[in-house]
Amino acid sequence: MAKLIIVPTPIGNLEDITLRAIRVLREADLILAEDTRTTSVLLRHLGIEKPMRAHHKFNEHAAVGAVADEIAAGRSVALVSDAGTPGISDPGFLLVRTCVERGIEVETLPGPTAFVPALVQSGFPCDRFCFEGFLPQKKGRTKRLAALAAEERTMVFYESPYRVVKCLAQMAELFGSERRVSVSRELTKRFEETVRGTLAEVLEHFRTTEPRGEFVLVVAGRSRADDAEKTDEDGEEHEEA
Ligand code: SAM
Q1: Which residue, 120, 135, 157, 236, could crosslink 217 as a Cys pair with Cβ 3.0–4.6 Å?
Q2: How far apart are alpha carbons 237 and 241 in whole angstroms?
Q3: Which stretches within 115-156 are classed as H helix?
Q4: What ligand 1 atom has the least distance to the C-alpha of 88?
Q5: How far is residue 125 from each of residues 121, 172, 223, 226, measured CA to CA in Å?
Q6: Inter-residue contact 68 to 76 (CB < 8 Å)
Q7: Could you report the per-residue pLDDT of 106-128, keeping only the tens digit for each?
């Protein structure tokens, strides 16, 4: 039976593509790609030639119905994004939802995504966590962060290198400068690096070392220690949860 297959692709190191992903790309009737030029480079590397069509945030609303029709008519369609897992801060959700609503089979392959290695190597609890993806760039940004100040689970954010310093500064203000953070950049690539410390320390680091590349910020959830710090700051006791 034809289906929609979600295919994760490497976030840097090409060795991270799975054997299954390669087979699925080889067997699909059509590949939907966020950027056909980016995916062409990967397919060339894998020696795969396949019909490809652009599927990105600017056309996905209009395109999902027709894609679902094609799958229903018997064509197997693989969806890839520029890097990592489609649907994770990338196009994919709308197409998956449409297929699910229409009873079309969806198969999601496990594979590369940036937040999992960043979370696991942060050293913060990862038995429970919340993935926040990109914060709003302007409207609603402070409100969103303020709402997360009380979050007790480890939090994961994607951020552009141009806003890393601003983001750390806002977090220091709203979460407290002693809250711990782990910033991973260029995961799986040559200049991969993880900087850990308090928000104040890591902010100072990136104020003096220009942030370059792709970033994941992992922030420790609120702990009782944060509450104690808050008590010291305003001289009042806070009820424990
Ligand atoms: N679909 C992707 C995934 O599964 O992780 C995410 C795509 S989103 C448009 C791009 C963001 O993911 C970047 O701005 C960065 O925050 C994060 N990212 C992607 N690749 C990364 C890498 N190699 N190292 C660190 N962060 C990365």
Answers
A1: 157
A2: 12
A3: 115-122, 141-148
A4: 1
A5: 10, 20, 12, 16
A6: no
A7: 999 999 999 999 999 999 999 99
Q: Decide: 156 in ligand 1 pocket, CB within 6 A.
A: no
108 lines ligand 1 (CB under 6 A): no
Q: Is 9 left (phi over 0), alpha (psi -120 to 50) or beta?
A: beta
Determine the length of the chain: 241
- Ligand 1 pocket, residue 188 CB under 6 Å: yes
User: What whole-number distance in Å separates Cα of residue 121 and Cα of residue 63?
Assistant: 38
For residue 140, what is the DSSP state? T
Is the Cα torsion angle 158, 162, 168, 170 positive or negative in sign? negative
Give the ligand 1 atom nearest the CA of 118.
25
Of the pLDDT bands very low, low, confident and very high (cuts 50, 70, 90), residue 239 is very low
> From ligand 1's centre to the CA of 237, what distance in Å?
40
Residue with tokens 């007790």: 152
Q: Is the CB of 217 under 6 A from ligand 1?
A: no
